[in-house]
Amino acid sequence: MSFDAPDDRGYMESHEWALNDDGTVRVGISDFAQDELGDVVFVEVPDVGDDVTKGEEFGVIESIKAVSDLYAPVSGEVTAVNEALFDAPELVNDDPFGEGWMLEIAAADEGELDDLMSAAEYREQVE
Amino acid sequence: MPRRRPPLYAVHDERDASFTDFGGWEMPVEFDSIRTEHEAVREEAGVFDVSHMGEVTVTGPDATALTQRLVTNDVAALDPGDSQYAAITDEDGAILDDTVVYRLPDDGGRLPAVGGDPSPADADGPTYLFVPNAGHDAEAVDRWTSHRDEWGLDATVTNRTESFGMFAVQGPEAAGLVDDAAADPVTDLSRFEARWVTVAGVDCWVARTGYTGEDGFELIVPWDDAETVWAALDCQPCGLGARDTLRIEAGFLLSGQDFDPAENPRTPYEAGIGFTVKLDTEFVGRDALAAQQEAGVDERFVGLTLTERGVPRHGYEITDPDGEAIGTVTSGTMSPTLDEPIGLGYVPVEYDEPGTEIRVVVRDRPKEARISDTPFIQ
């Protein structure tokens, strides 16, 4: 099976993606991850204003069958969370790289994003 | 120990099912999505491969006496073609396993000989077929044979788990679907009634039973003909993931999770299946259960619903509103039918009234919840 992995963003081994827009980093999980999890029923993310640390847990995603931690791709302050997921967590399944995004972080150091995998490297990991 | 595979493993693999280990069996957990499969069963029909369930036959002059002494229900009350849900308990009344006991037709049915054991058709006396949970077949056979020998009874106990596959067709359209595939009508079968029926040219033991809260049938089919019967049951294939969400909505127990003789020993009265206990029969655990029925239980199996966001899961603590620990969630999920977080677990009897406010501790945070009636769906 092949999975989408847009080239415009970086990826973590733990399957989060990070899309940088001038220091504001939008975060979600990959198409592969949502497929592995199955029907997503709950997403727990921090509040706007909270700080997250690169490589550490920032939240939890639950599908009907499993619970998984979510890891921050970059350190910084949370500037937005996707409140649509509170009522419609299935957006993560339907559109993991678009409407299913989870939060935005004002990156403390954009250089941290250099550690992420490229789309090509990530595709190699999951295929 | 290598994992056992159902007769249709290759067929499911070809269909891109994902698999999980269940009681030592490699079983399909999901074909399309749990939600899709769950909804098919609630609204139309779905078919489950449950070949991980055991099949054990007991036959001979003392088959009734032996089985009667090892399960809580009244086996002697079964007429040929009847079945009953029962618990297998230890001396303390704790549930070792739960099972359905079928009485086959008195000619021994159409069961072939297995190993050195004769076909029940050649045996003298009634034949029972009971269905232990996944991975419990060998211990059930050991329990039956060791008690037979200890009590000097005349019965042949045969493990036929790898002679038969088992499918469950469940949902409002299940009856029509099985009826269409069968050579003779099946819709006249009452709940817990069963008979041999030819399905797609194959002799199957067809019972009006199931584990989803829906109408439906369970078919016990010869291992080598499993693919023919499966192909004739043309509806949404469902995995153990949907089976779990469906049975939680129905408030049904899962062996090894909602009760476990080692980790969480529970009696039938605590687990809400006191109706399977017939105290006027003699069985292992009877005296302990009689005493508990007299004294009453301290804790009871209940449903619960979270009224805050979150999902209750096996092992999460239940507290009272002040944070005092009162119990543990044994099963939980986000109900696909109700779109609400629901769970099952044990609480002290003073908290068991539906509507009672409790808390479920989800990742160190107490979430508001209340005790609910089961089944969660009507």
Overview of the molecule:
The complex is a heterodimer of chains A (127) and B (378). Chain A is 18% helix and 35% strand. Chain A is of the alpha+beta class. Chain A has a six-stranded antiparallel beta sheet with strand order 1-2-3-9-8-5. Chain A has a three-stranded antiparallel beta sheet with strand order 4-6-7. The radius of gyration of chain A is 13 Å and the shape is globular. The N and C termini of chain A lie close together (8 Å). The mean pLDDT of chain A is 96. With 378 residues, chain B is of the alpha+beta class. Helix content of chain B is 19%, strand content 30%. A six-stranded mixed beta sheet of chain B has the order 10-11-12-9-3-13, sandwiched between helices. Chain B has a six-stranded antiparallel beta barrel with strand order 14-17-16-15-18-19. Chain B has a five-stranded antiparallel beta sheet with strand order 5-6-7-4-8. The mean pLDDT of chain B is 96. Chains A and B meet through strand 4 of A and loops of B.
Quick recap:
Chain A is of the alpha+beta class.
Order of helices and strands of chain B: HEEHEEHEEEHEEHEEEHEHHEEEEEE
Q: Give the N-to-C terminal Cα separation of chain B.
A: 42 Å
Helix content of chain A: 10-25%
- Distance from first to last alpha carbon of chain A: 8 Å
Task: Give structural attributes.
heterodimer, A: 127 residues, alpha+beta, 6-stranded antiparallel β-sheet, 3-stranded antiparallel β-sheet, 4 helices, globular, B: 378 residues, 6-stranded mixed β-sheet, 6-stranded antiparallel β-barrel, 19 strands
